[in-house]
Specification:
Chain lengths: 155, 362
């Protein structure tokens, strides 16, 4: 996953980068699934790899970016980037060290717990009912808006 | 005497039965792919009043085998100017997702106590959508890496079509989950064995007004899902990505030999997987009225498996029948149909189902 994520940045051809990002998403989904979170893993594939990245790839191919592939490596910028990454990694290590729960491994998952779909569903509809409904209305408004706008441009 | 106890330990038992099930299922489906090509030619010949393949074997039944040999022996030509890596990757990407879908389909009840599904996921249908949405990559990359106009146009059409119809596909199955209360395909089939098939709820115990009212949204769902599945698998009347008259051969114009065959097989495998999903969700999966499941003896388990594949074959025949009957849509009509009709119909259908369920609960 990390390898393909690094390749997203390093590769010069935008299509290669996009495909590496897809690979990275798939690997992340695999990580979720090995943690027994099938629902999140599959949603990750469905939303990011299946829908968002197809649109990305679509746009990249339509634009047919040749200039990006020819561009030289900017030394100062890459040095700065590596410095930022190093700083962030250091910060992350510090934060994780200061967390008390990071010192010992997590307790084993309860094998009798309901399946993750049921778990996500009950949590969403009991604890986070109001935010969920607000998001639902927002999404509905945006879908209706898209249909209305596309209909208008067609005329 | 050798001891076979090691094969009966739970983990190892799961491992080798899964391998066996995977091997058998993939074998059966690939054979079905080959013979659906044969069926396609025979059905088209019958509909157009021709004879069809009849030279190799009885009624041309060995034709797929000979075709396979021909395709493997042909020169695997790579045009200059293509992106070689993606050009080779695309056929595999088009083929693999179709087979991955099969992993969650319950193709039988149980045989000797082993459930006849490779991966009994709680999120079965989401897996189907997630994996089949990855199938777009094969087509997009094939069109792009060929570095040629017509394949590129074909792949653009295909990806926009698949993305548009995925929404209708996803929305049209939500009423089923509202009724059954599960995403697990095996449990959906169990529900249908108890309460009657989704599109044909009669003849089962517990038939009442609620079932009758729920039949209406189920029929709407079935229609929307079926049509969206036609669009997802790029079948006529939605086969714009490979419209021969406009785009030569669509996204696989530049391909030859076995790479072309991979696209071809991928299309048919996607069709079989799609038919399997339709059968599982709407037509009761492996269940037949008055036929017990595999726990009543292995013979019934075999009958259940045969029932599933017979239903899949019937749906495939329907696909072929439609292909040779209806003309092709125009591309803007296709997109309009997807966004303005199916999207709204599927959305209203969800509310209709929810309202019926709410009315009978109170």
């Amino acid at each position: 996953m990390l390898g393909s994520a690094v390749a997203v940045v390093l590769l010069r051809n935008p299509v290669n980068s996009a495909m590496c990002l897809v690979l990275s998403f798939l690997a992340l989904a695999g990580l979720y699934i090995t943690l027994d979170a099938f629902f999140i893993g599959i949603i990750q594939v469905l939303v990011y790899a299946g829908a968002v990245m197809v649109l990305f790839l679509f746009i990249i191919m339509l634009l047919d970016l040749k200039a990006e592939a020819r561009r030289r490596l900017n030394l100062a910028a890459s040095a700065g980037g590596i410095a930022v990454i190093g700083g962030f990694a250091l910060l992350l290590v510090q934060v994780v060290k200061s967390l008390p729960s990071a010192a010992h491994p997590f307790p084993a998952l309860n094998p009798d717990a309901p399946s993750d779909v049921v778990g996500v569903g009950t949590t969403l509809f009991s604890h986070f009912n109001l935010p969920l409904q607000i998001i639902g209305v927002l999404l509905l408004v945006s879908t209706v808006g898209v249909v209305v706008l596309s209909r208008r441009t067609l005329r | 005497m050798l001891s076979f106890d090691i094969f009966l330990q739970p983990e190892i038992f799961l491992l080798w039965t899964s391998f066996l099930k995977t091997a058998v299922l993939v074998g059966v489906v690939l054979t079905m792919v080959a013979y659906s090509v044969w069926a396609e030619r025979k059905v088209s010949a019958f509909i157009q009043d021709r004879v069809g393949p009849n030279r190799v074997g009885w009624a041309g039944l060995l034709q797929p085998l000979v075709d396979g040999v021909k395709l493997v022996l042909k020169e695997n030509f790579v045009p200059s100017g293509v992106n070689k890596f993606f050009f080779s990757l695309a056929p595999a990407l088009a083929f693999v997702p179709a087979l991955l879908v099969l992993a969650v389909l319950p193709f039988g009840s149980s045989l000797f106590g082993v459930p006849m599904v490779i991966a009994n996921l709680n999120t079965g249908i989401l897996w189907v959508f997630a994996v089949s949405s990855l199938g777009v990559y094969g087509i997009v990359l094939a069109g792009w890496s060929s570095n040629s106009k017509y394949p590129f146009l074909g792949s653009i059409r295909s990806s926009s079509q698949m993305i548009s119809y995925e929404i209708a596909l996803g929305l049209s199955v939500i009423p089923i989950f509202l009724i059954t209360g599960t995403l697990n395909l095996g449990e959906i089939v169990q529900y249908q064995t108890l309460h009657g098939w989704m599109v044909f709820p009669m003849g089962m115990s517990g038939f009442n007004l609620q079932r009758l009212l729920l039949w209406i949204p189920m029929l709407i769902s079935f229609l929307v899902f079926l049509i969206a599945m036609f669009a997802e698998t790029n079948r006529l009347p939605f086969d714009l990505p490979e419209a021969e008259q406009e785009l030569v051969g669509g996204y696989h114009t530049e391909y030859s030999s076995m790479r072309f065959a991979m696209f071809f097989l991928g299309e048919y495998a996607a069709m079989i997987a799609g038919a399997g999903v339709i059968v599982t969700l709407f037509l009761g999966g492996w269940s037949l009225p008055f036929v017990p499941d595999g726990s009543q003896g292995w013979l019934w388990g075999v009958v259940n498996i045969a029932t599933f594949f017979a239903k899949v074959a019937a749906i495939i025949f329907f696909f072929l029948w439609i292909r040779w009957t209806l003309p092709r849509f125009r591309f803007d009509q296709l997109m309009k149909l997807g966004w303005y009709v199916f999207f709204e119909v599927a959305l209203v259908n969800i509310f209709l189902t929810a309202a019926i369920l709410l009315y009978f609960r109170s």
